[in-house]
Amino acid sequence: MAKGKLNVVKKTKGATICETQSGKRVTLLTPSGKCTRYDRELKSGVNSRTGQPLNACAAGYRMGYRAALGEQAKIYKKKNK
Would you give the DSSP letter of residue 80? Predict the structure, then answer.
C-alpha cells in the first residue's frame, strides 16, 4: 500500500485537519488536543470515537497520559523560565 501525501486543510491549537488524495479527511491531534479529548472522555465516561463506555483499563490509560503530559509541562516550564 503506497502512502499518499496529505494536504493541510485547517490548523488549530489542538489538531490539524488534512485531506488525502482520495478526498478522505483525517484529523491529527497534537498532544494538548489529545489531552483535551481524554479529559472530555473521562468526564463523560464514554469513548468519543466509538460511543462505548470507558472500561477501567481505558480510563486508566487516559488518566496516565494526562498526568505524564502535565509532568512534562512542569519540567519544560522549570527549565525555560
Answer: T
